[in-house]
Amino acid sequence: MKTALEWRGVAKRFGRNRALDGLDLSVPAGSITGLVGSNGAGKTTAMAIAGGMTTPDAGAAILFGEGPFDPDRHAGRFSLLPQDSELPREGRSRELLAFYARLQGLDARTALAEADRMLEQVHLTDRARSPARTLSHGMRKRIMIAQCFLGAPEVVLLDEPLSGLDPREVAAMRDFIVAQRRRRTIVISSHNLHEIELLCDHVAFVEKGRTVRSGPIDSITGSRGVLVYTLGTGALPPEDALGAAVPGASFVFDAEEGTLTCRFDADRSTPDAVNAIVLRALLDASVPILGVARGTRLESEYLRQSGG
Amino acid sequence: MIRFWRQTFLVLRNELADALRSRRAIVVLLLYVAAGVLTTNSSISLLQKIEGELSEALQLEASGQAGTVTSAMWKSDRFRRMVAQAAGDKSLVDDLMGTPPIVLIYGGLAFFYTPILAILISAPRIAEELASGSARYALLRTSRLSWSTGKFLGQAALAGMALVLSGVGAWLIARFRMAASEGPEVATGMLLAAGRAWVFSTAFVGLATGLSHLTRAPGRATAVGLVGLLVLGVLSWASDHYYGPGFRQLWHLGSVLTPQAHRLDLWRWDPARLVPAVVHLVTLGWVFLLGGYAWFRRRDL
Questions:
Q1: Are A269 and A154 in a shared domain?
Q2: In order along chain B (301 residues), what is the average pLDDT of each group of 10 residues?
Q3: How many domains does chain A contain in total?
Q4: With pLDDT > 70 as the criterion, what percentage of chain A qualifies?
Q5: Which residues in chain B are closer than 8 Å to A90, comparing Cβ atoms?
């Protein structure tokens, strides 16, 4: 798969604090990749380095296989929603967006059209002439998201894009981001794992400035080769019979949680086929079944990975 | 290169528009005009008082308008010779005496307050964008050099606009309060004085924007700018005062680095003196700016 952005051995210190410690991560072109990690894990620094805002002590963030970010080469092809960056106070929404679009190389008319298009996308057409200082936090955040998608950027980095938005806007922004799937490469940093699970197809766990695990979400959560059954109170699943029914699969019963986890080779059997066999075996043994789910949740996988 | 200047121009235009929309810049712009108008007005009042006393001492008929006596003196060859002898620089005195007195008054005042106002307006600009992070949105799309250059030129354009407005204000006051100020000579002279003050101000705008790259605190940038202004003033005075033969020739460096040393040459008409002064002052502005940029180009945002 083609790589749109790659961090290669990136290290960065701020005084005594080591923000990145040899971060290696490849972002596949056309993917929506989530960066997940605890506070201070290095996600924001990694994004800032990719956008040329911060200079790494070692390593580099390579864009499009061409080299580190260079505004002369990459303006308009790459964009970033930086964390904790305010808009110019006196700038008016439409003029600001048009100004950024023009800096990207668009002509005056196209820049204004782009500004109008993005204002419509973020539902702020009625505030086109408002100075940034008069907008609410959520509105400013939407303008900041809008500036990321001016023109046709190939790679967009969004640092905590949905924080500070009201629930309706969160849903709208989420739909907007999902609609960009496969048209652009998007990297999202967020503490909200549910959000990452909904938006992303790839994920990377970053801790202490390093990538501890990365890949497609369904392989990380095991959703392709894992089925989790929630059983009734006091149930005891027939593990031997199950093992015989699904050759090559492993079953782990957690009596405390009342869950039975079935891991199987997703390349050899489909979840539907395995589920049919397991359900039949459980029903034959009169085990009460309360629910079935595919895979483990990203949150539990992240907590397991980070030792939480 | 075309792309660089195109983007610089976009930043300049945005900087100007942003400044004109901000209340603080409007206030400072009005300060420029007020400084031009009020100081010209009080200078005229002072001149009128001196002329009144002079007329009384010489038992001449006092004029209702200020400037009658001064204009007469200004045209007197004997007075010119006297001033040239006292100043020791005949060509400079000839150039100055060829300028209407009210223009000299306005120009002198503009040269005095422009550096301070340039520091007050320009020094916080870049620092506040670095503090709020708003600089990042532009710097994703243009190089740091074109952004810094655009900011500098935008601030210089703002200072030019303010000086022209203050020149017009001073001319209006002179027109109504001072004799022989109706003609185009005074209006043109005022505009030229504003232009000279603008050239002088570019060095200080460069100093202010250069220093503004060094910090994220707008207040600190202003304070450092004012200290810088003071240091340049002291250096200019010291290089003038201590310059001499031998090692004291090194003080000449001080005059190379300070805009103040080239102020008077801006009033000359001789291109051999005027052009180097203009080039020197504009270059100083760029040197100060690029000094700050050299720090900024690698710093983390």
A1: no
A2: 90 88 77 81 79 72 65 68 66 72 82 88 92 94 95 93 86 77 78 92 95 93 94 88 82 84 83 90 95 92 85
A3: 2
A4: 97
A5: 18, 21-22
Q: Of A162, A187, A215, which closes a domain? A: A215
- Whether residue A97 lies inside any domain: the answer is yes
- Half-sphere exposure of residue A77: CA atoms within 13 angstroms, side-chain side: 14
Which chain B residue's Cα is nearest to A140? B134
DSSP bridge pairs for B117: none
Longest dimension (CA), chain B: 73
ipTM exceeds 0.85: no
| A207 and A231 fall within a common domain | no
Contact B17 A95 (CB under 8 A): yes
Q: What is the 3-state secondary structure (H, E, C) of A186-239?
A: EEEECCCHHHHHHHCCEEEEEECCEEEEEEEHHHHCCCCCEEEEEECCCCCCCH
Q: Model pTM?
A: 0.82
Q: How many angstroms away from the CA of B198 is the closest CA of chain A?
A: 26
In a domain, A183, yes or no: yes
Buried b (16+ CB within 10 A) or exposed e, B7-26: bbebbbbbbbbbbebbeebe
The CATH number that applies at residue A58 is: 3.40.50.300
Domain locations along chain B: 2-296
Considering the domain architecture, whether residues A71 and A148 belong to the same structural domain is answered as: yes
Q: Using CA atoms, how far apart are residues A28 and A4, in angstroms rounded to an integer?
A: 6
Can you tell me the distance from the alpha carbon of B232 to that of B222, in angstroms, rounded to the nearest whole number? 15
Region class of A207: left (phi > 0), else alpha (psi between -120 and 50), else beta: beta
Query: Do A129 and A66 share a domain, yes or no?
Result: yes
| pLDDT average, residue stretch A196-209 | 88
* CATH number assigned to the domain comprising residue A286: 3.30.70.100
Chain A residues within an 8 Å CB radius of B141: 71, 75-76, 100, 103-104
pLDDT bin (cut points 50, 70, 90) of residue A308 is: low
Residue A220 maps to a domain: no
Size of interface A-B (CB pairs under 8 A): 74
Assess if residue A147 is contained within a domain.
Answer: yes
- CB half-sphere exposure, B201, CA atoms < 13 A: 35
- For the segment A130-162, what is each residue's pLDDT rounded down to a tens digit? 999 899 988 999 999 999 999 989 999 999 988
Contact B288, B203 (CB under 8 A): yes
Residue A2 and residue A14 in contact, taking contact as beta carbons nearer than 8 Å: no
Q: Which domain holds residue A293?
A: 226-305
B199 touches B281 (CB < 8 A): yes
* Best to test chain B binding among A99, A114, A149, A156 (most B CBs inside 10 Å): A99
A254 touches A246 (CB < 8 A): no
